[in-house]
Structure formats: structure tokens, C-alpha cells
TrEMBL record:
Domain of life where this protein originates: Bacteria
Main EC class the enzyme belongs to: transferase
Residue stretches making up the Methyltransferase domain: 7-154
Membrane-crossing residue ranges in chain numbering: none
The protein's name: Arsenite methyltransferase
Length: 210
């Protein structure tokens, strides 16, 4: 994958959820490496522990429970930080990227998938989705603002690996994740105004060697 994980490395997954990416990372780091699952809910950490156990990889994993508003994690513990569509849900993105910067050892890198906005979106429509916090689109911000936060946290060599504009069906799924039962009822008309503006991005960036 684009995270470029090597055997023997320590990989931290920010927002590790059910642990699927942790299992993949644990296979890549091998028996001499380690994965660290960082999540915001005890329920998800328990689930990820179970998944790692079933995969026979518990000995390579540790877990840290953090506050989504102010994630506090030890410094200089990881060679790579990965995160899959989680940071857009965090209220304070600068706090998150400062923490990720601190988690990484000098010379370490991040590999992030996330959701951003491109082009002009009516501010009222954007505020509407933020106010109801619709699924995975609620916290999305303009791509240039997002990358500015990453760079201001101290990261360099930012490279966009992939950009994918969400189609109507994907957009609907994103706005209603984790499921219609749980997500707020949103206006289909307002969702149509976001068409072609919500983008899934994958990018990497590096923490300079001291």
C-alpha cells in the first residue's frame, strides 16, 4: 500500500476502529515490529483487540484510548502513522496533526486517507452539514485549508497519492454512515449541492530528521 510499511517498524493507526488496518499493518511489520491502535472509544479498542487475537497477532499490538477533542499520546513512538477517514471527524484538526507529528520519530512519515471539499460550496450548505454532523462528511473542510494544517504542524514533503471525487451513491453512503438508523436525517437537495465537491484523498508527508 501507499503507507510503505517496512518489516520491524512501529506503526500507529490513528482512529484504529475495528482493527482491520491494524491486522494488515501487523503482517507488514512482521514479528520484529509493532502496531499501536489509537482510538476514542473503549468499545472499538475491545473489538480491535479481539480481531488481532483472532488473527494470532496480539503479541504485536498495543492500544491507547484517547480523547477525540485532545488526543494525548507519547512522543517519538512510531515510524509510520496511518489513518483511514477518521481525522475529518475530529473537531480540532490542528490538535490531531500536532499529536501525530509528536508521535512520529524524526524521519518518520504519515499516510492518510481522508475526506475534503474542493471547489466552491455555498457556506450555508457547508454549515448545514457541519451542524448536523452528517456521517463522514460532517467535518470535511476545503483541501487547501486541510493541507495548510498538516504543513503548519511541521510536516514537509507532502504528496497527494490519489484523489477520488465521490459519486452520488458514495456521497449518500458517506453522509449516512454509520447507517441510516444512526445518522441524522439530511436534506437530499442540500446533498445534491455537494455533488462533485467531496473528495476522498490519500497523501503522505514526512517529519524531518532532526
Amino acid at each position: 500500500g501507499f503507507a510503505n510499511i517496512q518489516p520491524g517498524e512501529v506503526v500507529a493507526d490513528f482512529g484504529s476502529g475495528g482493527g482491520i488496518d491494524l491486522v494488515l499493518a501487523a503482517h507488514k511489520v512482521g514479528p520484529t515490529g509493532k502496531v499501536i491502535g489509537i482510538d476514542f472509544t473503549p468499545h472499538m479498542i475491545e473489538r480491535a483487540k479481539q480481531v488481532m487475537g483472532e488473527a494470532g497477532l496480539s503479541d504485536r499490538a498495543e492500544f491507547i484510548l484517547v480523547d477525540i477533542e485532545d488526543p494525548q499520546v507519547p512522543d517519538n513512538i512510531a515510524d509510520v502513522v496511518i489513518s483511514n477517514c477518521v481525522i475529518n471527524l475530529c473537531p480540532c484538526k490542528p490538535c490531531v496533526y500536532k499529536q501525530i507529528f509528536n508521535i512520529l520519530k524524526p524521519g518518520g512519515h504519515l499516510a492518510i486517507s481522508d475526506i475534503v471539499i474542493i471547489g466552491d460550496v455555498d457556506p450555508k450548505v457547508r454549515e448545514y452539514f457541519q451542524s448536523i454532523w452528517a456521517g463522514c462528511t460532517g467535518g470535511a473542510m476545503p483541501e487547501d485549508e486541510y493541507f495548510k494544517i498538516v504543513q503548519e504542524a511541521g510536516f514537509g514533503q507532502l504528496k497527494v497519492i490519489a484523489r477520488h471525487i465521490l459519486g452520488p451513491k458514495e456521497l449518500d453512503e458517506m453522509a449516512s454512515c454509520p447507517g441510516k438508523k444512526f445518522s441524522p436525517i439530511f436534506s437530499e437537495e442540500k446533498l445534491a449541492q455537494m455533488q462533485g465537491k467531496i473528495v476522498s484523498i490519500k497523501f503522505t508527508a514526512v517529519k524531518a530528521k532532526e
